[in-house]
Design goal:
Keywords: Cell projection, Cilium, Flagellum, Repeat
Shape: globular
Protein name: MORN repeat-containing protein 5
Strand order of the largest sheet: 1-2-3-4-5
CATH architecture of the largest domain: 2-Layer Sandwich
Subcellular location: Cell projection, Cilium, Flagellum
Strand content: 25-35%
Distance between the termini: 67 Å
Order of helices and strands: EEEEEHEEEEHE
Number of helices: 2
Main location: other
Helix content: 10-25%
């Protein structure tokens, strides 16, 4: 069994780096996700006892008093760090410029969703999963969809 300091690559592309004991995560360690996020935690027999998730852009998740993009302050983290764009130029996602969504698809966070095939692929167009009815409804109701025509800000000459 794995013992001591080391790393372990999961089939999902997530990697664990840290302390291992009796084949389990045990002690200080972190999960590095393919999307760039990290989860640093203290583990006991494979279960995190305390930890902190940090998104790829540096935003730290707080499970109490989480006010990110809420009704009071709807700015994205990049806008908080770098400031707002001039009036009339909206930032649609935390990524600027946002990802280009394939025609007829939705950006569902970990990839693109095609509602006709009900398939989600990652941003390199590799298969992730089939959406069940609940996920399908959530994506259609919530996520950003590709525009039928491109509109972009054109500065006045």
């Amino acid at each position: 069994r794995m013992e001591g300091q080391g790393s372990y690559a999961l089939p999902t592309g997530t990697e664990y780096r840290g302390a291992l004991r009796d084949g389990m995560f045990d002690g200080e360690g972190e999960l590095l996700f393919p999307n760039g996020g990290t989860y640093r935690a203290v583990w006991h027999r494979g279960v995190p006892t305390q930890g902190k998730y940090t998104f790829a852009d540096g935003l730290e998740y707080k499970d109490k008093k989480w006010h990110y993009c809420d009704g009071y302050d709807r700015r994205f983290y990049t806008e908080i760090c770098s400031g707002l764009k001039p009036a009339g130029i909206s930032q649609l996602t935390n990524l600027d410029p946002p990802r280009k969504i394939p025609v007829g698809c939705y950006d569902c966070g970990d990839g693109f969703y095609n509602p006709e095939t009900r398939v989600i692929v990652d941003y390199k167009l590799r298969f992730l999963r089939n959406a069940d009815d609940d996920e399908h409804e959530w994506i259609i109701r919530t996520c950003r969809k590709a525009w039928d025509e491109t509109t972009e800000h054109k500065p006045k000459p």
